[in-house]
Amino acid sequence: MGWFPTKLDSEESKWHFDILILLAVIGSSATKKHMPAITASAFGLFPRLLPAPETLLDTSRLYRLPSAQNVDVVGVHSGTVLTELNYFANLLHKIEDVKPFEFRCYEIDYNYVDDEKTEPRKLRIKTTSFLNVVTILSIFMSVGLLVFAGVIHDGVALVGVGTMALSTSAASLSAWWSPELPELRKRSVGAKLPDADVVIRTRGGGFIVVRANEKVVRELYTGMDSCKYNLPDKARQAFLAMSTLLLMTSVIMFSNSSEKMQIAVGAAYFILNILYWGLALLVEPSGVWDMSRYHIDTPKGTLASTYTKVLWLAILETGSIEWVRRANIAPKTAAWDKWLQEACENALREIKDWPAEQRKDEIIEEYLLKQQNQNGVLPQDQMS
């Protein structure tokens, strides 16, 4: 058999189209979870096979990282109110793991590499992350397939593997980016950054208090974490077009390679799909990104029995109730206003054993009796 088929109707060597390519295009859900990290890793620029490479062929650029929804982020001192949690902040807190009525408190500062406090390290992909291990394995598998195609003199497979690997490389280069964190204006040397604590409330009623300075809070919570692409838009479009053409070429070549190569390529994609599924199921994005830029002090969380108790814990930690009113975290009723005022007074006096739940019930009863005496009928309960 020669390197390339020469006829369309010869039984010995002919062009034909099989369904091997399906193995190459399935698995998009497995790669989607870690797609931001895949396109940010420098290892991703190497030519290699990747399950569902068409997921990289996105004509629109993502200029902001995906954020966690259904949360309230409130500045204790600044008055800022947001309804989403930034991507890297969510990597630190794992908001989806916060239980209902759970309270946590974090202290976050920069993790300086030396005592001079010049500049903390940048956010990046962990060098020894499982993602990079899988990427390196896929590179070696691609090289092995190329060598095997050359050994058996299968030129079609040689071109197919090469074009598919180059297609992935071109698409990765078009989407290659690095995190761009918001920055504060430069202050005078020696100026101390003010505290800018924030409170995060989850949809399930969990509270997280974060103590940090203004710069850290701007980077992680109140600013916008955006993507800084390494190629201009015109170059990106050119690499996307090149990747698309290479991908279409590889589809034809894969379908017309020898049976031995089809088995080898099919086995390679089978293994790669298992690896990327394992990556998606077993490794969270927080295990891929190097967050050593920040030093995080995380005490053990407290699980309260009611919303009132966990709200009291947050007020006790912050010593303020302005953020509660600003973000509409408590009902706007006279009874709740009185309870909040008492909670603030006891928090400032650091009375940790103040019976928050009991006082809420007593205040409710007082206001209900007061309204009953005024109206002669029992009104609807104002509080839950």
UniProtKB/TrEMBL annotation:
Keywords: Membrane, Transmembrane, Transmembrane helix. The chain crosses the membrane at residues 130-152, 158-177, 238-255, 261-283. It comes from the Eukaryota. This is Uncharacterized protein. It comes from Aspergillus sergii.
